[in-house]
Design goal:
The chain has about 900 residues and is an alpha/beta fold. It has 25 helices and 32 strands. Helix content is about 30%, strand content about 20%.
Length: about 900
Amino acid sequence: MLTALRIHVDGIVQGVGFRPFVYRMAKRHLVNGWVLNAADGVTIHAEGDERLVDQFVLAISEEAPAAAQVKAIEMTEVPLQGFDFFEIRFSDESAVTETTLVSPDLATCDECLAELFNPKNRRYRYPFINCTNCGPRFTIIDSLPYDRPRTSMKGFTMCDACQHEYDHPENRRFHAQPDACFECGPHISWYEPGAAEEAVAPVADEEASEPIPAAARGRDTYEMAAKMRLVPAEPEGEETSIPAPSGVTRKASFASLMGGGMAIPASIPVTLTRASEEEPAAPCGGAPRASFMGSGIVTHSGSPAGVPPQGAAGGSSSAGAETGVKWGFTREESDAILSRAVRMLRAGKILAVKGLGGYHLVCDACNEETLAELRKRKRREGKAFAVMVADVDSARAWAQVSDEEAALLQSPARPIVLLKKRADVQYPAGLADRLPELGIMLPTTPLQHLLVRDFGGMLVMTSGNLHDEPIQTDDDQAREALAGVADAFIGNDRAILSRYDDSVVRLIRITGGITAVQSIRRARGYAPQVLSLPNPDGLTVFATGPEQKNTFTLVRGNEVFVSQHIGDMENAETYDAWIEAKQTYERLFEAQPVLVAADLHPEYLTSKWASGQELPVEQVQHHHAHVAAVMGENNLDEAVCGIAFDGTGYGPDGAIWGGEVLLANRSTYERFANFAYVPMPGGAAAIKHPLRMAYGVLWEFDLLEHPGAQDAIAALGQAAPICEQMIERGLNTPYTSSVGRLFDAASAILGVCVEPTYEGEGAILLEAALSGLPENDEGDEGYHLSIVKNTAGEDSTALDTSVVLFDAASVFEAMLDDKQAGVPVPVIARRFHDAFVEGIVQVAQLVDMMYGIHLVTLSGGVFMNRYLLEHAASLLANGGFSVAINRELPPNDASVSFGQAVVALARNTQTA
């Protein structure tokens, strides 16, 4: 029996190869009709046998491209129209322009990866290989609809072979906007300061016959690497490569890649060899070296060196016209650049390498001297470095990787995944010292695949910026800004139109085998995936976000776009990046806000910006925004017990909040509990120098004379009496209820971290001290927070004065007792953590008993602490509470802008 259905597919279904996928499914199931892009998704008219049409719809749902996200499929029976073919129809531009669900950038797919390492394929080792299932998306879009002329690929005219792929629906590169090859697409470039003026000698030209000592490797043995194939087996089935067109004219010469420094004849062919069992392992136990390293340099004549190729106008301001920039127009030239890069990496040099959303700083992750030099140059003293390895097996050589974590590593988003270190591995000093976890990611781009495989080991892959500055995206600006950091630069002539850092995620484990993926930094691969909020009045809202870990949120209709990670709004460069990203979102999504939401803090740059707009401004208290973000993300409408612990948030009483329990809904809150205020002598100085914070805590809790406190006070030196005077006279000494500051104080008192080198280091290292401890022994009474009735004044309100107080004096006194008694620091740290876990459960029970609220949200930067989050959530769940946490958004301030939007919509929605 014949039937006809009108099918509407909602989700990320444009720019991801969805229409050719539907076309192929229709051909497979003998379905006729058409498919086209609609303003709100994809619309399909399907005619055929009823059974086959049903199978067609199931295939659309179950076999969608990896880059697509099918949110909903709606079907309506319609009259038969008698189609005897299936076609892809092209929508009018006005409809497509309204499309809002733009795909994030996607990692190189398996099919492209097979072609990348297949010597018979015309894109063999092409650093920009992609198809509709992978490659850049949001970082190259200038405006919608998503067509090549509206991207940074507009300067690259496709060759006949690429155009053929682009035009045919059966091809997986049908309408792949970044489709390109060596003949017609972007190319990598090389800049090595000084190399243009003088010959550059080969660096550390290791010979395969010289084994690397075991002491130089992170692991003594790594048998898997010795057996690794450097060239994957040729894909099964028919060879699909198309012969490259002839007659292509080069626009620049290569002229001796290193100024003559690499004495390898240009005539030597580029070859790959399978590693033998006898070949020595590379540093850190990586893959063995291949014979193509250092060969394949080709010299052209007739054009001056450094002239950019055809698309270079978008690559950087001068696009490589600067003397000394070399281009990889051919595979041989491109491979020569990579060969030089690998040699420099093995010699302990630092490279700046352009990725999808910005530059990375790259070096050998196992060279301790190089790690120390990178920290010095980048001004990044203690914070852990993220690393990149070739595949999941390589990741397992360095960390514990569950099946779920392996899936995260291999997902199209390719985030950095925080993984537990292995106990049997010795980690290089300076990589992730004192921390129980290592941030690992797999290659995202073809260039990264080539670089990691050619290097044959683990690479540091950290943001290409200086401390607290935005990641660099422009080639010329990167060479200037990172001149004192990188020894050489791998750029390219494809412009980055949106700045994106790498995303960071982790797997949370809760009692009963429950797991949840939680974002820690949401950027490349995830943003700007759409979230949703009820918005019956259709308000367009812009939420500015906070001062630290800033994101902004743009609401249009029911669709919510949370920006990529912007950073700390503490300098002009980050503020400019914020403005630039805001303009990009408003332009792409054609959204003009009618309402602005901002933080209550009057001195935040974002709050000042909001007050300067000719639009109504909804001010949202910081911790209410934290709670509302969890509510919005989990579609919660009823009142919750919102527990928000962090470092800093402006309270309506003028104090610094950070240890709050709010009875909240989406529009308002009451302050049920908070930690008793403690002084911060010196204000912000107490954050940078936690011994000052420790002094304030000890002063407030009358513990300055405790024997266990004396070494901390002595370490404070002459600042101790100054702190006392500041507190007693009320000079530059704000008061805070912040849990984050209590953790800082405890870390300093225990000597874990007295001079942090990055934000939150004291608390991070205090949690790290727990690593390796067994679970708490039964009978260990531990420490206990006191919960006392608060005293309200005549001017008190439910927004600024809580019902009860947490008093941490007893916890700090017990901690000092244990310290004086010689109890090991890890045990003290665990007891300290457990006191806060217990306090969370107790206050939730109190709220449930008094108000009947058994829905608890956990949010705020303190819940970046894995131990605190997992133990509190587990105990709450065991106690019968429903627990909600941030998942798609981080629990830290990166979720505040979304919470601001939630509150602003709730307050400004008309109700009957």
